Amino acid sequence: MNRELGPIHLIKYIYIADLEYARQNGGVTYTGLPWRFHHFGPWCTEAFRRIEPSLQSVGAKKRIIEAHSTAFDGEFIRWIIVDDDLYEKLERELPLIITTTIQKYVHKFSAITEDLLHYVYNTWPMLKSKPGEMLDFSVPDYIQRQNESVPDIEKRTSDNLSARQKKKKKQSIEALKEEFKNRLEKKKKAKKHQFTPPPYDDIFFEGLKTLDSLAGDEIKPVEGIVQFSEDIWKSKSRFDPDVS
Predict the structure, then answer these.
(1) 74 band by pLDDT with thresholds 50, 70 and 90
(2) Is 132:42 a contact under the CB 8 Å cutoff?
(3) Pairing of strands 61-68, 73-80
């Protein structure tokens, strides 16, 4: 796993932690930061400004990578720190939902920017907003129903458990979920019929020709500019699963 993360990754992981905290706390985020729909993703200038000073204060190493390509010309910044004592200290001080969420999603996406951005773009505060607006973390009904369907074993956390024990418990639950998911996938694959390609002879191509003729006249390519109403950002098709 790539342990080096850039500012864009760190911002998104803070957002995800706030999102998961809000999911379990009635729409209230942990940090209280003012998140905004900026360009195509969640952004907070206050958080961005605190990244470098905070990382320098704990001794994180900064690496600057020169990039020269047709797609990008400039510098990449990457940060890394390996400090078990600091990790355990943060585990004790931060809520369990914050530490486990960051651990889960950093393990899942690491520094894979495209996958991480795709995930945050499709979170409910983003889907309910339009560019420039402040993000609303109020929990939608369909998310609330998902929360209620989570097994009680995952919701219960004993006050007698240490931070590390809580983390191991969470990891065990995630491992069981992953194993169950893999078993379902294997069953689905086993049920699929093996595809047998047809003989690509004259009869095959004559059949294709007949099918094409039934489709009507050929659609000719056209060029133009498509304009969408600003109302599309508030369309239910973006955030309501019963519509989309």
Answers:
(1) low
(2) no
(3) antiparallel
Q: How far apart are CA 233 and CA 94, in angstroms?
A: 35
The Cα-based distances of 238 to 74, 224, 226, 242 in angstroms read 34, 25, 19, 10
Q: What is the pTM (predicted TM-score) of this model?
A: 0.68
Find, among 42, 32, 33, 37, the residue nearest to 12 by Cα: 42
pLDDT the model gives residue 104? 93
Environment class of residue 50 by beta-carbon count within 10 Å: exposed (0-12), middle (13-18) or buried (19+)?
middle
**Is residue 16 a contact partner of residue 47, using CB atoms and an 8 Å limit?**
no
Per-residue DSSP letters for 129-179?
Answer: --TTPBP--PPPHHHHHHHHHS-HHHH---TTS-HHHHHHHHHHHHHHHHH
Structure tokens at 241: 């699963």
Structure tokens at 22: 């809000």
Task: Reply yes or no on whether the pLDDT at 244 is more than 60.
Answer: no
Dist. CA 85–CA 83, nearest whole Å: 6
Pairwise CA distance, residues 25 & 129, whole Å? 20
Q: Where are the beta strands (DSSP E) in the chain?
A: 36-38, 41-43, 61-68, 73-80
Distance CA 183, CA 179 (A): 6
Q: pLDDT for 134-188, tens place per residue?
A: 999 999 988 888 777 655 444 444 455 566 666 777 777 787 778 777 777 777 6
